[in-house]
């Protein structure tokens, strides 16, 4: 039951002071996912965005490797995949900087950092 609760996080479940204090680190989590974990390790808001940033990193590395080894079709799809990853990174960065708690589409439902 608690895992299901973590999948449906809302803004009300985070401390407003934590959100206000961690906005910058949450946004930067999409560039360096571990930054909020180092700078504000007790921030649940920072951990949420660090998790989303880590998911984005894993997806981008795995997708790039897979598409790179597939001849022709993979090479054609790789730039499209890269643009999709860039769009997700920008979406996450904006959400983090604005203090929003929104999961990334398609990949954001997993929790790797607790």
Automatic annotation (TrEMBL):
The chain crosses the membrane at residues 24-41, 53-70, 76-97. The lineage of its organism: Bacteria, Bacillati, Bacillota, Clostridia, Eubacteriales. This is Putative membrane protein. InterPro entries: MamF_MmsF. It comes from Desulfitobacterium dichloroeliminans (strain LMG P-21439 / DCA1). It is found in: Membrane. Keywords: Membrane, Transmembrane, Transmembrane helix. It is a multi-pass membrane protein.
